[in-house]
Structure formats: C-alpha cells, structure tokens
Design brief:
2 copies of one chain form a homodimer.
Chain A: H1 12-16, H2 20-41, E1 43-44, H3 46-61, E2 68-71, H4 78-86, H5 88-91, H6 121-134, E3 141-146, H7 153-162, E4 169-175, H8 186-196, H9 205-208, E5 212-216, H10 222-232, E6 238-244, H11 252-256, E7 263-264, H12 283-297, E8 301-305, H13 316-322, E9 326-328, H14 333-345, E10 349-355, H15 363-371, E11 378-382, H16 399-403, E12 410-412, H17 417-429, E13 435-438, E14 462-465, E15 469-474, H18 479-493, E16 498-501, H19 510-516, E17 520-530, H20 535-543, E18 549-555, H21 565-571, H22 576-587
Parallel strand pairs in A: 2-3, 3-4, 4-6, 5-6, 8-9, 8-10, 10-11, 11-13, 12-13, 15-16, 15-17, 17-18
Antiparallel strand pairs in A: 1-7, 14-16
Helix pairs in contact in A: 2-3, 3-4, 3-10, 6-7, 12-13, 14-15, 18-22
Chain lengths: 588, 588
C-alpha cells in the first residue's frame, strides 16, 4: 500500500506515535501524495515540497489545536492538511474537491484562519497571543512565514510590534531562498548573510526589531527540526526561528526552477511537462509583448510588479527584454504604488501590473500618494473578473467598487483587443490622471464595433446600436452578454433597442443619458463585479431623478468561493432570457 | 525688526549666503515665526520646533529643487516653507491662510508631493530616483522620515526595497524619540541602542535592510549638520543618515510633554495654556469613558489604536485606566487590523479606533483578515464626516464607499448619543460579523425618536415619521438635516411626509422600501459622504426597478480642501430649500 502510514493518520496525535524511521517514511508518502494531487489537478507545488519535514516536526512537537499554527499565505499547507484528517483529499481523486488550497477553519479545527494573501500571519498570530494572555490561557502560538512574505508591510509592522511583546510567541521564518519569482529587497540579502554564518551575522534584522533569534540550517531534516522546535516550545517571549528549507525538495525540476514550479498545472512526473498545453493569445501575452515594444521606443516607461510577474504574463524571458524598465519590488504593493507616483513626478511613465485581489492592499496609496497628487500611474488589473481566480481569498470582483469611487482616478473597462490596446496606450501617453485598466477576464475578443481611441473626454460612452425603449449598458468583458441581451430583447420587442459600451466605470455620460431618457424608459446595466459601489449604481443614481426604470446586473455582495461561473451568472440573472423576464416584469 | 533675516529669504539660495552666526539667528527667527503662527491659529508644533536646524542645514547644503526633498507626513515642514518663499505665511497673520499644513506642489516647486499620511516618503522618493536614473539626470534625492513613521508598513517595504538600489538616495531618519503619542515597536528600541552607541550597536536595522548607515548625534546643531550632510551629498548609493533631534526644541513645555505639544491649539506662550478652553461632552469623550467602564466589567475587550490616541479622545489618563486592555501598535494600521482578527478568533472583543482617513490603509485587511474570516472586530471611525478634518489629505468622506461595500461587514451610522452607545454595545457584544461605527462628526445630539437597540436584523431602517408621497432617508449625522428637510417639504406640500433613520449604510431595507413605494413617488437620501459608492446609490439601484424618483444627496467625487462646511453643503444642494426645489423640479 502506497500510503501505509499517511492513510492511518486521522489527527496530529497519530503523528506523535511514529518513530524516527516512520517519520522519514511519512515524509516520502506525503511527497507522493503531493505528486498525486498536484500532478493531476495542479496546485502550489514547490512550497509544499519544501515544507514536508517542517510540517511533520511541527505536529510532532506541538499539540494543535491547543497550540495554534498560523501559516502565512497558507498555500504551503498541503502537508498540514494531510496530517490533520484530510489526507484523503491528496490520496484519493474522489476527495480532491473536499479541500481548498489554503487553510480554512470550515475544514478543520487545526486551521485558524482563511488566508490567501501574504504577510498576515505574524499580525494574526499576535492577536491570538494577546487574547490568550488576557484570558489567562496557555499554549503556544506559532506563526510560519516565508516564500517572500517577509517583505510585505503588514509582516514588517507585525515583526516590529512583536518585538515589544513579552509572552510566548514563536515566529518560524521558512527561508526557502525564494519568493514566488525572485526575492527582492535588502532583507533577503540579510537572510543570505545569516544563512552563510549559521545565524551569526552581526546585523540581524530580527534582533534589530527587538526579537530573540535562532537559526536552523537543516530545514528538511526531521530529527534536527524536532530538536530545534522542542527547544523553543513553551518559550516565555517572542522568538524567531529561522529555518533554512529547500523549495521544491525531492523533485529535481522543482529544485532547479523554483519560479516555474511554485505553482504547477497538471504535469507528467517523468518529463516534468504540463499535461495540457496552453497556447494562443491572451490579454497577458498581448500586454507583455506590447510593453516590450513600447519600452524599446520609450525608456521612460517602467513596468512594476510585486512578486507575481508570472501570474500576469511576465515570464523571465519577457522581463529580461524590458531591462531596467522592469522593476519587481517583491511583495510590497504599497511601496510599488507610491514609487510609481514618484516615477511619474519625475517624468517617467509607470505601470503597476498585479491581480485585482492583491491591489486591495493599495487603496490608500492610490487615493493619497497617486490620485491626490494627480500622478499619471497606470494600474493594469488582471483577474478583476468572475472569470478570474475563484478562491474566496482571490476573487477580484470588488475592484470596481474599490477603485472607481476614488476622486481623480479614471477606471477603464475594455471590451475587446483593439480597445484594450488603445486604452493602454492612452493611459501611458497622458500626464493628467491615474488610470485603472480592468483587463478582461475572458479570452481575447475582436472588436465588433469601431473603436474610439480617444479617452480624454471623461465618461464618454459609446453608442454601438441606437434603438428605443430599452437601453443596455454593458461594461467591459460583459459587453458580449450585453450584446446578446440587446439582440434578444430587440427580437422579443420587435424593434431595435440601444446597446452601449460605457468604456468608463468611474462615471456616467450624463449628456448621453439625458438624451436617451427622451425615448427610453428602461435601462439595463451589466458589469463584471459586485453591484454595491459599482457602475450600475452610479447609472441608477443619475437616472433616479428621471423616473425611468433601471435594472442593474452584477454580483451579490458576498464572498464567492470556488464557483461555477455559469451558475453564478444564472443566480444573478445575468443571462439574456432572465434579463428579458425582468424587463417585462418591471414594465407591467 | 523681529524677522530681519527670515523676511529677506525668498528662496533657498538666500540661505546659502548666510554665515554661521546668521544661520543661528535664522533658527531663532524661525522659532519665533512658529510661535507666531501656531500660537495664534494652532498647528503641528513639536515636530517643527525639532526640525528647525535640520531644515536650515538641508537648504544650505543641497540645491532644491534640483535636489529633491520628500518630507514624510510633511507636518514638520513649516521651517521648509519659510525658507522657500513662504515666510510671510508664518510672520504675517494676513497670509496665514496662503499655505496648508503639509507640503503641496501647488504652493511651491520645492514641495514634491501633497502628503499628509505617514510612512510614504521613502517609496515616493525611490520613484524620483528611478525616473532620474532612467532619464540620465543628476541631483540628490533626499527622503526625510521620522515622528514614528518608520514603523508603518509602507516605509518598511520601501527601506527594504532601497536596500537593493544602487544610485544616489539619501534617507534621513529624523529621530526625535517620539511618535505622535509614544513610540511603539521593537525598532524604536533599536534606534535607542543606536543613539546610546553613537550608531555603533551591532544589530542595525538599516544595515540589516541592506543600507549604508551613518549617525549624527547633534541634530539641532547647524554646523555639525552641515558637515554631516556635505559628507553624504552626491553619494553614489542609498544611505541612511540617522539624526538625533529634539522634539519641541526651544520651548520647555513642548520639550517635556511631547505628546500634548505634537499638535497645539492656539495657546499663550507664557503659560503654555490653550487660548480657548474646549469643554463639554464629545463623542470622543463618551467613547473613552464608556470603554473604560466596559473594560472594568469585561477583560476580553481590547481597544487598539495606531499612534493617534489623542485624536480619538484617548489621552494618557484614559489609556492608563484601560491597562492591558489598551494597545497602541504605533503607526501600523494594517497590523492593528489583522491583530484584531486574531484577538476575536481567540475570544477577545477587539475595537480598533482611528480616523477614517487613516483607515484607508486597511481596506484589504478588513476585507480578508477580518471580514472573510467573520471576525467580530469593531472599527470605530472618527472624522468620517465633512465636519471632520478638512485638509485634502485628511478628509474622511470616502469611508462609506470604502467600507460599506465589503461583503460581510455591517456599517452602522448613529444619529445621536443614545443610538451611538447602543451601536457600540451591540457591536462589542455580538460574535458574528465585523462592524464599522461611523461616529458622528457633529457635536453630541440627543435622541429625538425612540432608539431601537437591536441591530441584529441587518439593514432594518427606522421609520421616524410615516407620511406619504415623499420619503426622506437621512443617514447618520445628516439625520438632523433630513429632519429639517422633511419638515420643510411637509409644510410646502401641506401633508405629512416620511422620515427615515436608515441606521445601516451597508444595505437597504427592501421590505420597507417595497411598502413605501405604494404611496410614495419621491425618495430623498442624505449622507455625510461622497455619493459614489455610497448609501444613496444603493437605494437608487434598488428602487430603479420601481420607476419612482430618487434624489441622492452627498458630496461630489473630488478632493475637498480646507473648505467651509456650509459652502460645501450649499454647493451640493444639501439644504431643505434646495432639496425642495429639486423635488418640485423632478415631479413636473
């Protein structure tokens, strides 16, 4: 039986019963299970391969859930899930969907938080410490942070805060020498010096923050880890345990190319090749190629990423082609944003590309450092769409509500390739205002109507079809659904209705709406985002004075999780048939 | 003549012409001018007193604007403004209003950014460096950071990033041993060790971040500062100059009580007493006293602040009364928020109190660390109101749009004292969801209608008066204007109209609205916030299907700056007379 030990582990208590040889065998079985699941359905791979031994040692030494673990980002918790009653979800294909890719308290009492963003573990854990102490309770609180998360402001704030605490708090720095892409920032040089000197280097970041510190070189050696963890168990003050692990441990391709194997699609173990080839054009590839071309002609352009270049199409080959005009700041979104404002102030053309969910970190910087200062920064938002990442921690459908209401910022929603390229160029070439470009979450679409490349007149909507009675305003990548809807309604009504590409999500075309109310009594808005705070509500508020009917379509204000897109669309009535039903109902 | 030298300084060039004795005299004149302005109209005082000599030395050694200064928070730039052509605004009462309290590029080419939030200078300056280098230009870029800003995530991210840069970049750490209130966090212990050892302490935070480092003890000695600055001018790599200054320098009360004199109201120089006594109850004082009382009975409550306790009524006496149940994390809003989630997870009752403008830093943490995790954290937002701080950097009227659209979060807007207290207690006593309490920006008001203390049924609005035709929904501290408006309209119409206290800004009472549309054709919403993304738009979107008229009142989506409240209200038509005009117009 391939999973002789693992299949018998129902809780961490079972780990404690194993002897040293069995623990080594367990590590092998966990790696097999990682191959089994990730090879078939994909997932975070390198981080989990590196965490196998440390996770076993943690559960061997500590007593979860009395002792509380907080795993940063939590994409490295597959081994933890296997040891806390969820091994079947890695062994047995039928149970793959029982677990998500992150810790989740709904799955297990051993998962403290639902976490998917980086750099939060030390803060969250410090709160557990504070409440534990106030209640006079005991037990260890252990934050496990690594994979580039240390450079995030929230983590650094928390380390600084922890430096003043005075009770049990263990911070394990899982140092695998690698962020998601490269590590960036001076502190990673510090970690390297500390590794080279077995923790003895004189300028120690953690000690400088006021924290006690120990170094463990053998981060993939179970007995050594057990020893080291026993030494800090029940410590009476905050301490950092700096553990040197190997990302991708146990699979040569992943050990050698740590960036590519951070997250793996389904793959063949023998060859290391993906099972399904992804070819063809995407908005990410269009973006990368276009920016390389623009940088070739204009050295004032700066493309900025925060540790996730791969997720936005900037594979190493593309980044290298951008040379000095590409900057990866590491996990440091706030810094990236303010730096972009500084670049713009000195005549550069900065563009910050990230996923919408991670852009939630920069609300204040966009508001103050950028928009208040009228800095012409382009925010190139990927996955700001129901078609994007679908874990509740990563869904990007709050983007319109978050950014479109910031004064001075122009939020553009392209509907097709040509318009997307036009918006990108427009944004880079103007000096007046910050721009968000909400990159479509769909495949690349061709323009069905002439593209107006001028966006200098704010909030100027495009009339694609001019009809009467009903007007459909379909924003961004929901334009196609809007088009189908207007066709459907026209057919039902037996007359042409109006179809509009709003282009802007940050305001309404008052002039156009004033004209349309003359021969339209029903307005339909569609947007790929949560309705609250979004585009449709602006239209509804403007038209509220007119006494016409406005039907707004978008998503409910709730946390969507691992959904089927079509089901969500149906539930929100975002289909031509359902919208027609509503139009009929409200006109009665 | 009292300002013999200062009145002759039209630009930094004039500073360079002075000899050593004259520079010392200039420092005295600048202090006089600080007394003159702050004594009469109030302002940041201690930080500016401490910066006098450093500012003179900076302008003596460097060549602004070719050399570029970025002052963090920028509330310590009064001396800088005096030396860059704006001395009259400190000398001459008639010109006091010519300048704002922060750097502002609209005022001078020597001000790089409009800045009022902390911890942004190193990031902004790093962008200036990047663009300078790409353009092949020369000149020094100097970030000046201090007053507790170092502990902010954005600053720490930027220091880490700077540790990898390789061209001229000077970071001056103005170490005045004081945040706004106390300093908090381990790194301030590190600064203390560095001061004690004249920069020789072995674990050096800045070196650990990869930065070069020098220490200057005599931060209020002009010749020593000039020497130190000359040594780093034109440096070819990033360097930290750690300068020890004295907050409040030159005024004994401010040297001794650095917290109280951080920001001073108009005061008498001789006695140090404020010119106008502020007495009486405020929502801040109600809050402090109520929390002390609750903590006395319930040790699971934790009141968290981020460096600005004074601004929210938590003067030292009140904080001390809260003991261990009060935590000031220093400038570290993100950490504060996630820590609160951890406290809630382990059974505590956390409340984070800050100003709305600073809460812009925590959008992602509220969304992910708190709301996604269903942590019952109370966010007690002060100054989320047009009646609050009126500098464009500090206006809090984006709060509704920012927070009310986050899934799972309940946004409460009290209209009077009793309701405020009820909401505070409700929020602390439930375990289901995070809550924002938008504390009224007005003086404390008494309840005019019975207060329903139950907020467990989400989005349940209160009908205060039940009439017909017109319904006025007046949120939070705009309830009184709404009340006046409904009275005015009733009088004009000659019939009773409906007045509603929505209580919740995060949703609409669909049941109630469904009922009201039966005998109302006009709905008026009022809110103390920007309309876009706010409460009224939710109402308008819901009622859009009904074909009734909705008039939404709030502020325009723009950056308001040092405004007269009544003028803003008039411009936005938020008066009973103007609203009545609009009602009449739309009903024609």
């Amino acid at each position: 039986m391939q999973y002789k030990l693992l299949s018998g582990i129902k809780s961490p208590v079972d780990v404690k019963r194993l002897n040293e040889d069995q623990l080594a065998d367990l590590a092998m079985e966990i790696r097999e299970a990682l191959f089994n699941r990730v090879g078939k359905i994909g997932g975070h791979f390198g981080p989990n391969l590196g965490m196998v031994e440390l996770t076993i040692a943690l559960h061997y030494v500590f007593d979860s859930p009395r002792d509380q673990f907080v795993f940063d980002v939590a994409h490295q918790t597959y081994p933890h899930k296997m040891l806390t009653g969820r091994a079947a979800s890695y062994i047995d294909e039928e149970h793959f969907q029982d677990v998500c890719g992150f810790t989740d308290p709904r799955e297990s009492e051993h998962d403290m938080f639902l976490i998917g963003h980086t750099s939060t573990s030390v803060s969250l854990a410090s709160g557990l410490v504070k409440a534990r102490d106030l209640a006079g309770k005991k037990g260890n609180v252990i934050a496990i942070i690594g994979d580039g998360s240390l450079s995030g402001g929230e983590a650094l704030e928390a380390l600084d805060f922890a430096g003043e605490m005075d009770s049990n708090f263990i911070i394990i720095v899982n140092d695998n020498e690698q962020s998601i892409a490269e590590n960036h920032g001076g502190l990673y040089k510090n970690l390297a010096r500390l590794r080279e000197t077995a923790g003895g280097y004189e300028d120690n970041l953690f000690r400088a923050m006021g924290l006690d510190y120990r170094y463990v070189e053998e981060g993939n050696d179970i007995p050594m880890l057990i020893h080291a963890l026993r030494e800090v168990k029940d410590v009476d003050h905050p301490i950092v345990l700096h553990v040197h692990t190997q990302k991708g441990k146990g699979y040569k391709p992943a050990e050698e190319d740590r960036e590519s194997w951070h997250y793996a699609p389904p793959f063949d173990r023998e060859s290391g090749k993906p099972l399904y080839s992804r070819t063809g054009e995407s908005y990410a590839s269009l973006f990368a190629d276009h920016m390389i071309e623009r940088i070739r002609r204009d050295k004032s352009i700066v493309v900025v990423t925060a540790a996730v270049p791969g997720a936005v199409g900037l594979i190493p080959e593309k980044r290298n082609a951008m040379g000095e005009n590409y900057v990866d700041v590491g996990i440091a979104e706030e810094h990236a944003t303010a730096m972009c404002s500084g670049i713009a102030k000195n005549g550069g053309k900065p563009l910050f590309v990230t996923n919408a969910t991670f852009a939630q970190r920069i609300y204040d910087q966009v508001h103050q450092d950028v928009s208040l200062n009228k800095s012409a920064v382009t925010f190139h938002l990927m996955s700001s769409s129901i078609y994007g990442m679908s874990d509740s921690t990563h869904v990007g459908i709050s983007a319109i509500g978050m950014f479109s209401n910031i004064p001075g910022l122009v939020y553009l929603s392209p509907t097709n390739r040509e318009e997307y390229m036009a918006m990108l160029d427009y944004s880079l070439d103007q000096n007046d205002h910050p721009t968000v470009i909400a990159v479509p979450g769909t495949a690349v679409k061709e323009a069905q109507y002439p593209v107006d490349r001028d966006f200098s007149k704010r909030n100027k909507f495009q009339i694609c079809e001019r009809g009467e009675e009903v007007a459909v305003l379909a924003l961004g990548d929901f334009f196609d659904i809007g088009h189908e809807t207007s066709d459907y309604i026209a057919k039902k009504l037996g007359k042409k209705v109006t179809l509009i590409n709003p282009r802007f999500a940050s305001g309404v075309d008052e002039e156009l709406l004033d004209e349309l109310v003359k021969d339209h009594d029903t307005f339909v808005t569609l947007e790929d985002g949560i309705l609250d705070g979004g585009f449709g509500q602006k239209v509804a508020a403007y038209l509220g004075r007119k006494g016409v009917r406005v039907l707004t379509y978008g998503f409910k204000k709730k946390f969507y999780d691992r959904y089927n897109v079509q089901e969500v669309l149906e539930a929100c009535r975002i289909t031509p048939e359902k919208i027609w039903e509503d139009v009929i109902m409200t006109r009665r």
